[in-house]
Amino acid sequence: MTTQEQYIARLREIVQTKFGRRISTMEDCDALSEAVGEATNIKLDSRAYMPIFSSGVAPRPVALSTLARYLGYGSWSDFCASSDVTPAEDTDIIPVVRRWGVIILTLLAIVVVVGAIIFLLTLGKGGDDASRLAPLAEGVEERWVARTLEECNALRGSAAEEDYAEQVDLFVAGYEDVMTSGVSQDLHREAERQGLDVDDADLAPLRDAIVARCKAMCEVLYLEI
Question: Where exactly are the structural domains of the chain?
Answer without folding.
Answer: 3-82, 96-224
